[in-house]
Amino acid sequence: MEPRPLVSIITPVYNHEKYIQACIESAIKQTFSDWEMIIVNDGSTDTTAAIIELFLQLDQRIHLYNQDNKGIFRLSETYNKALHLSKGKYIAILEGDDLWEQDKLERQVRVMESDPGVVLAFGRAQTLNESSGVITPLFPFINQKEVLNNDPPGMMLKCLFFENPISAVTLCLRKDVLIESGGFRQEFNLPLVDLPTIFKMVMKGRFYFDDHILGTWRISTTQTTKTYPVEILKGRRDLSRSYFERLDPDTRKIVPVSLKEIDKYFSDKLLVAYARSGRYKLINKDFRGARKDYLKAIFYHGFGQPAWRLRAITGYLFSFFGWDVEEVARLLGRVTYKDRNEK
Fold it and tell me: What pLDDT sits at residue 342?
C-alpha cells in the first residue's frame, strides 16, 4: 500500500497553456517531496490539458481531472472537488498561472508538524507583471505579528474586515480543520474562495506568517481582480458586514472594529473601483460600459477621493472620442493599467 502524501497541492486551471509548465515545474522542484498535485482542468479550450498530460508520464505524483467549464463564480465547486480527491494532511494552493519558491512547502510543513495549534500558514509573495516582466515584492499592509499570526484566534479580524493580508499562492491549510470549517467557501457572488474560507478558519486556531517570499502571483489585465473590481469590492463588503454581525461579544472585545468603519472603508474603495473599471472597459473599447462606470465614480456620494473623480471625468470624455487612455498615460509618464502591479 502506497504511503499517503503529507501535502495535497490543489491546482485549478483554465486556458493556462502559457504558464502551466512553469507552474508544475515549481512544484516538482520543491525541496519537500512528499506531495501530490491535483490539477482540475475547468474546461480549457487551449492546449493546457495536453501539456499537463506530458507531466503525468514523468511524475506519478501529478493527477489530472477534467470537467466541463464551471467558471470563476462556481470556483468553490472546483476547489472542493479537488479537496474531496485529496489524500494529504495539508492542503496547499497553487493556481495554474502562479509559481512557488523551492523551499515553500518545506518551510511550512516543518512549522505545522511541530505545532498542531497552527491551522493555516502563509508567507510573503511577489507579483510578476505579465506585460512588463517586472517582479515586485509584496508586503503585508499590516506588520503586527500577533495579527498576522492570528494569536489569539480571531486577532486577524482586525485587518481581515478591511483587507486580506494573505496571498493565496502562499497558503497551506490543515485539511481536517478546513473540512470542519465547511471546505472552500464562496459567498456574496465573489469570484474567489480564499477570503471567505479564511473567515471561516480564523476562529479555529492560530496562523503562522513566514516573513520570506514563498510564491509568485502573476498579474495580467485579464485576471479576475482587474475584470471585476466593483463586484469583488461589493462582495468583500457584504462578507465583512455579514461576518461582523455574527461575532460573539467576547470576540468583539479583542477586535475593536465597528460596522461604521467597515462601511466607510468600502465606500471610499468603491469609488476608486468604479473609476478603474471604467478605465479597463475603455482600454477594451467598451465605451458605453466605460461611461456608465465613470459616471458612477464621478457622482459617487460624498466628496472624498477628488483625484479619482478627476480621473473619471477625464476617462468619461475620452470615451466619446475613442482615445487611447493608456497611450496618454504613457506620454505623461504615468503608470499604465497594464504595467500596474496591484491586487
Answer: 46
